[in-house]
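Appendix C: a fully annotated inverse folding record. The material below is reproduced so that readers can follow the format used throughout the book. The structure is listed first as tokens, followed by the designed sequence.
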């Protein structure tokens, strides 16, 4: 076949040949192999066929297969367009349009090509013969730079496949350089290119119009509440209606700005709107400073607590279903009168791994089933789930759970695996195109993918996420945001009242949760009273209180290993747990907030924006008077009675680990560490 014949062939016929020839070659090869195998298994008499006949037969089959593959390679090599592997043209997704009010194109009677221009010459140099640059939609600014241009094909339907769109986009953008957005006008056989505007840097979120001061306010705000993610390329705020996209997946690796985005945008704006929020802290330290903040009802930091927190939300879902049924029987106007809730699980891959290692595959299945139920029916009852992770794997988030999540956000440079596993098929091409324009220096830059099959919504939007203030944020704001953060703190965060009591479960000892069914059987308990202050009756169930019965093991509460400069100060580091204080010895420090924390950091500094509570719970009790000796002293007075002094224990191996009785072991587990 000559080159002229190949070029004269229509794209549709060429694609048919290219698709069929490999199948024909494969069929010939299979016939040859099958015939040869049958002769080996059932040898025929030598006189049946001559050697020459067999050689011609097999040689002809192999040669025909080789000709088919050569013909296909020639068609591809001499073609200027890619081969679509789809059986039918797939309509292109209606992706984001950053066209600055692009014009509507009337049906042209004839294509009028754009005038000569150096920029357009580079575009034309990489286009197939069937694609031209029309004069329609051309925008060249006063600096003689092209801001917008359109490509049109003379072959109807040539731009209908995503593969062809991607082929043209890559050819053009590599030729002209810069970052361009693409709008597909399938019905007009056009591709519109717009030069992308430069995104702004750090942006503070808008200050909400209202801060909920009661449950009634939270219910009133909810219908108009929007999750404000950031701004798009046109500088417009990207808002998401949680009633349409109730559940969210956030993917972002190190340096993507994921943590800042979650704290300052997702959590803080929901707190201001009066939502009840439960936080699953997969790293166990990311949300310690949020523990006890208003409207944060619980923070889980272990596998047992993650599982129990998820079941707490499932139980609340069931309670709300029953409440709605009761109200409907009473013919009330609105049966759904409970405030919105959010279950946020951060570092989900790590969390999932911990749950599986603790409870096995059956326990993990129960945990995931709870999340599936929440994402399947939670929308109607104002229960929303946010899952955040660094990477997406099929083993991390299974297909059914992922399918229940309509809003998926990728922050930073998206990995190929993220696009392949987390994004819908019809948006992968657009997501890949947008992701190719994001660099590792674009912190907080992301892609929001919105999928709602019932509403027919499938689109991908690039955005710059907000950089918002959070009470637990320890890093200072960027200089341009200092005033904005101060205003947000004064007008929003500091005005958020405590609307809901904190919740935990009736833990009896540090070994709780070893059996998942027993864990589920633990009853919830309210940790705060009617006025929002910690309830003294619930101190033993409060993980923020020193009397908490579920305190971690003593070995996990020792001080960090010292460095040489700390040793030079003469401080003695005793790694043996000391006796716990008597329950009546509660701190009366004026700086205490009632939970054993104060608002200053480890150096006594009260950060302007940090507001995080120090993690040191005043464990050093060396200034407390020693109890008087008594033969009837309670167990908590000194579990090391009769053992070597503390000075001797610093320099000799502690023998008490072998001889202390079981009761003393339990007391040691609740002990503090003296430094």
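Designed amino acids, in order:
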């Amino acid at each position: 076949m000559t080159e002229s014949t190949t070029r004269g062939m229509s794209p549709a016929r060429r694609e048919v040949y290219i698709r069929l020839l490999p199948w024909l070659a494969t069929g010939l090869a299979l016939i040859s192999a099958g015939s040869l195998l049958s002769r080996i298994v059932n040898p025929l008499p030598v006189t049946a066929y001559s050697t020459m006949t067999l050689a011609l037969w097999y040689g002809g089959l192999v040669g025909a297969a080789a000709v088919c593959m050569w013909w296909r390679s020639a068609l591809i090599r001499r073609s200027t367009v890619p081969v679509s592997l789809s059986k039918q043209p797939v309509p292109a997704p209606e992706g984001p349009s950053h066209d600055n009010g692009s014009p509507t194109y009337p049906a042209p009677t004839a294509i009028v090509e754009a005038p000569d221009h150096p920029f357009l010459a580079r575009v034309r140099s990489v286009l197939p013969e069937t694609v031209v640059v029309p004069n329609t939609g051309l925008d060249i600014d006063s600096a003689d730079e092209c801001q917008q241009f359109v490509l049109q094909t003379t072959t109807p339907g040539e731009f209908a496949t995503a593969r062809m769109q991607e082929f043209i986009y890559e050819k053009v953008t590599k030729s002209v350089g810069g970052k361009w957005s693409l709008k597909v006008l399938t019905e007009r056989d056009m591709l519109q290119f717009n030069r992308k505007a430069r995104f702004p840097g750090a942006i503070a979120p808008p200050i909400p119009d209202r801060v909920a001061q009661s449950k009634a306010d939270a219910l009133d705000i909810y219908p108009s509440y929007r999750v404000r993610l950031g701004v798009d390329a046109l500088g417009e705020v990207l808002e998401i209606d949680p009633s349409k996209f109730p559940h969210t997946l956030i993917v972002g690796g190190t340096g993507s700005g994921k943590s800042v985005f979650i704290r300052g945008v997702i959590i803080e704006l929901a707190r201001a709107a009066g939502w009840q929020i439960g936080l699953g802290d997969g790293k166990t330290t990311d949300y310690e400073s949020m523990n006890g903040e208003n409207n944060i009802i619980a923070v889980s930091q272990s596998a047992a607590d993650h599982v129990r927190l998820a079941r707490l939300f499932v139980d609340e879902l069931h309670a709300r279903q029953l409440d709605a049924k009761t109200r409907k029987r009473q013919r009330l106007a609105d049966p759904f009168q409970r405030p919105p809730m959010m279950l946020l699980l951060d570092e989900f891959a790590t969390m999932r791994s911990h749950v599986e290692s603790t409870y096995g595959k059956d326990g993990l299945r129960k945990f995931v089933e709870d999340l599936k139920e929440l994402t399947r029916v939670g929308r109607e009852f104002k229960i929303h789930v946010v899952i955040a992770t660094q990477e997406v794997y099929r083993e991390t988030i299974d297909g059914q759970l992922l399918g229940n999540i309509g809003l998926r956000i990728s922050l930073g440079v998206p990995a190929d695996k993220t696009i392949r596993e987390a994004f819908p098929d019809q948006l992968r091409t657009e997501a890949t195109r947008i992701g190719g324009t994001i660099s590792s220096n674009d912190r907080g830059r992301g892609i929001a993918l919105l999928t709602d099959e019932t509403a027919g919504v499938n689109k991908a939007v690039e955005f710059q996420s907000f950089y918002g203030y959070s009470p637990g944020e320890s890093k200072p704001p960027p200089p341009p945001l200092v005033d904005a953060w101060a205003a947000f703190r004064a007008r929003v965060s500091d005005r958020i009242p405590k609307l809901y009591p904190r919740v935990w479960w009736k833990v009896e000892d540090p070994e709780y949760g070893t059996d998942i069914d027993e864990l589920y059987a633990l009853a919830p308990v309210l940790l705060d009273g009617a006025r929002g202050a910690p309830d003294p009756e619930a101190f033993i169930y409060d993980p923020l209180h020193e009397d908490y019965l579920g305190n971690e093991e003593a070995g996990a509460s020792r001080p960090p290993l010292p460095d040489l400069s700390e040793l030079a100060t003469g401080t003695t580091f005793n790694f043996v747990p000391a006796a716990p204080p008597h329950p009546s010895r509660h701190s009366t420090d004026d700086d205490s907030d009632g939970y054993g924390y104060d608002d200053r950091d480890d150096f006594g500094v009260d950060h302007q924006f940090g507001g995080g509570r120090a993690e040191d719970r005043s464990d050093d009790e060396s200034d407390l008077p020693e109890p008087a000796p008594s033969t009837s002293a309670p167990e908590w007075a000194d579990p090391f009675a009769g053992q070597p002094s503390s000075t001797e224990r610093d320099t000799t191996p502690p023998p008490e680990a072998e001889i202390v009785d079981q009761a003393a072991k339990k007391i040691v587990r609740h002990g503090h560490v003296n430094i």
